[in-house]
Amino acid sequence: MQKHDGKLTYQALQSVNYLDMIFSETLRKYPVYPFLDRTCTKTYRVPGTDIVLDKGVFAFTSILGIQRDPQYFPEPERFDPERFSDANRGNIPRCCFMSFGEGPHKCLGLRLGYLQGKLGIAHIILNYRVHPCASTPAKMEFNLHSFLITPRDGVPLKLTRVTN
């Protein structure tokens, strides 16, 4: 904030690399949409197998499964924003981090989604101290009846307003 005259600008948000790393790691562990669905536009044989996907077949890819696969993300249950540092981002295989989809049908709102998410987090951490409370779960439980990945009982936290 000091570098940007105390204003939370687009440039200020873009310069906070660690916030981007935290946001990316959160989306890796908890992608909003747990899978991608596509329709085969032509018959396709999966290389090295006898599996054939016929034209018109719906194909589903588990984003949650890939983004929690230890082959691609060592210790996948551990929250580690450093996975997304400039030094480490190149170690993530292409198409293994796809919280906004991948390929020609990738979410057009990716940049807006990141910007809105980072802006919301920035406003909270600039104005509040965030603490767990008595009802904050040690391990997140998910709503099994939701189409999206959402916490079963919300995320109860204690926010204390920061005074200048």
Automatic annotation (TrEMBL):
It holds the Pfam family p450. It comes from the Eukaryota. It is found in: Endoplasmic reticulum membrane; Microsome membrane. Keywords: Endoplasmic reticulum, Heme, Iron, Membrane, Metal-binding, Microsome, Monooxygenase, Oxidoreductase. Heme binds at residue 107. GO terms for cellular component: endoplasmic reticulum membrane. It is a peripheral membrane protein. One of its GO terms (molecular function) is oxidoreductase activity, acting on paired donors, with incorporation or reduction of molecular oxygen. The keyword Signal does not apply. Its cofactor is heme. Gene3D superfamilies: Cytochrome P450. InterPro entries: Cyt_P450, Cyt_P450_CS, Cyt_P450_E_grp-IV, Cyt_P450_sf, Insect_CytP450_Detox. May be involved in the metabolism of insect hormones and in the breakdown of synthetic insecticides. Belongs to the cytochrome P450 family. This is Cytochrome P450. It comes from Gryllus longicercus.
